Amino acid sequence: MTKTISRGKPAGAGGRWPATLKSPVRAFLSRFRRLSRSEHGTSAVEFGLAAPILLGLLVPVADLGIAFSQRIEVQQAAQAGAQYASFHPWHSNSPADITNAVKAASTLSGIEATPVPYQVTGCPTGGTVSQATPGSTCSNGETAGYYVVVTAQLPYDPVLPYSALGDAVILTAQSTIRIR
User: Fold this and answer.
1) How far are the Cα atoms of 37, 62, 64, 158, 169 from residue 164, in angstroms, in the given order?
2) Neighbours of 80 (CB within 10 A)
3) Residue 139 and residue 129: Cα distance in Å, rounded?
């Protein structure tokens, strides 16, 4: 006969029940208690919870950065077209030549000089040129001159659709230069 101790467990083998006699529920609870006290793997779990949030914030920021970078390239292309106009006298092929200069100034595919570059006679007023007769005096005291207006455009599709940019955006830049 086996001796028992006061708790009802066998006296042999340190007073413990053999592992084969433990119920599966008891084994699960025992493992769960050990796991709840353990700190192994908490960093991985925290990273797994935080990574989607960080990516959700990072992707739109990167997308806006790409859009602003391309906007700068569109502006530089428009300025290159205006610079071309300043060094070459205006003639019947000037709009096509300026358009080619805009396209050649950028590595972005799809950039266009739209509307077609044009020449206007007038006086500078802020960011525009108001119509005036050549040689007349403007309100700021300058003489009315000839200006070339170059507009460059590029369609931009965001990586992810979100409200900051919408589905598709046309990046536009304009450059105006006095040629004489």
Assistant:
1) 45, 13, 9, 10, 10
2) 20
3) 12
pLDDT band for 20, please (50, 70, 90 cuts): low
- The tens digit of pLDDT for each residue in 97-153 reads 999 999 999 888 889 888 889 888 888 877 778 888 878 888 888 888 888 889 999
What does the alpha-carbon distance between residue 62 and residue 64 come to, in Å, rounded to a whole number? 5
Tell me how far apart the alpha carbons of residues 61 and 54 are, in angstroms, rounded to a whole number. 11
Question: How is the chain split into domains, by residue range?
Answer: 42-178
8 A C-beta contact, residue 84 and residue 105 = no
Instruction: Say which residues have a Cβ less than 8 Å from residue 21's Cβ, sequence separation at least 6.
Output: none
pTM over 0.85: no
Angle of helix 94-104 relative to helix 42-87, nearest 10 degrees, comes to 150
* Per-residue model confidence (pLDDT) at position 141: 83
- Residue 150, classified by CB atoms within 10 Å of its CB into exposed (0-12), middle (13-18) or buried (19+), is buried
Expressed in percent and rounded to 5, the helix, strand and coil fractions of the chain are 45, 25, 35
The two three-digit tokens of residue 71, written as one number: 């906007």
CB atoms within 10 A of CB 106: 18
H-only helix segments in 11-89: 24-37, 42-87
